[in-house]
């Protein structure tokens, strides 16, 4: 399973990248807004730091303008994946941009039917949003499982990029189902290391170590 970081915060990406766990980055207009940075500048910095795919999202809503924006974003670096929304126009843009050899991430996927269309339109990645489905009392992980089954049935090569990750459980379950990639906020990726029994065990070891009166250094 590949890990993408869902942020445009350079320092957060750098810390995770230094640990060797970053296979790519996803951004979206909200994350660019949150960073307070210029989209072209911050995306270029991310691409210089991370070798893997960096998703940068178009903001036009009609296919011709999406295609033009996508071409401009793709010029930033060779590891750009142009992100387009899962609309009819977004699928047209996906078809054109992927035909030109660009990686395309089709985002805002909320149904298996949408995911089929993304694969047929040549998407490199499809991004089903787990958390936002959970938010409306549907099961986002069920959608990941459905897409996995369908893509396997027909040998679709589009990678399932589990997005809108809110918890460590989302990551573990998406991995069990067979999502190809998860993209998660830095805080969720960091919290994967946490377990109360690890903290409790470490505290006991430290207490016993103090009693020995020894030092390693
Ligand atoms: C994915 O590419 C999106 O940027 C992201 O996962 C959306 O997550 P959210 O629902 O927490 O905003």
UniProtKB/TrEMBL annotation:
Recorded catalytic reaction(s): these are: D-sedoheptulose 7-phosphate + D-glyceraldehyde 3-phosphate = D-erythrose 4-phosphate + beta-D-fructose 6-phosphate
Q: Which domain of life is it from?
A: Bacteria
Q: Which coarse location class applies to the principal site listed for this UniProt protein?
A: cytoplasm
Instruction: Supply the alphabetized keyword list.
Output: Cytoplasm, Pentose shunt, Schiff base, Transferase
Which pathway, per its entry?
Answer: Carbohydrate degradation; pentose phosphate pathway; D-glyceraldehyde 3-phosphate and beta-D-fructose 6-phosphate from D-ribose 5-phosphate and D-xylulose 5-phosphate (non-oxidative stage): step 2/3
Active site, per annotation: 83 (schiff-base intermediate with substrate)
State any GO BP term from the record.
Answer: ketone catabolic process
MF-aspect GO terms: aldehyde-lyase activity; transaldolase activity
Q: Which Pfam families match?
A: TAL_FSA
Which SUPFAM superfamilies does the annotation name? Aldolase (SSF51569)
In terms of PROSITE patterns, this protein maps to: TRANSALDOLASE_1 (PS01054), TRANSALDOLASE_2 (PS00958)
> What's in the GO CC field?
cytoplasm
EC class name: transferase
Compartments (UniProt record):
Cytoplasm
Gene3D superfamilies associated with the record: Aldolase class I
Q: Would I find Repressor among this entry's keywords?
A: no
The answer to whether the entry has keyword tRNA-binding is no
Which family does the similarity line name? Belongs to the transaldolase family. Type 3B subfamily.
PANTHER family this protein is in?
A: FRUCTOSE-6-PHOSPHATE ALDOLASE 1-RELATED, TRANSALDOLASE
UniProt function note: Transaldolase is important for the balance of metabolites in the pentose-phosphate pathway.
Its recorded name reads Probable transaldolase
From which source organism is this entry?
Rhodovulum sulfidophilum (Rhodobacter sulfidophilus)
The organism that produces this protein has a lineage beginning with: Bacteria, Pseudomonadati, Pseudomonadota, Alphaproteobacteria, Rhodobacterales
Gene encoding it?
tal
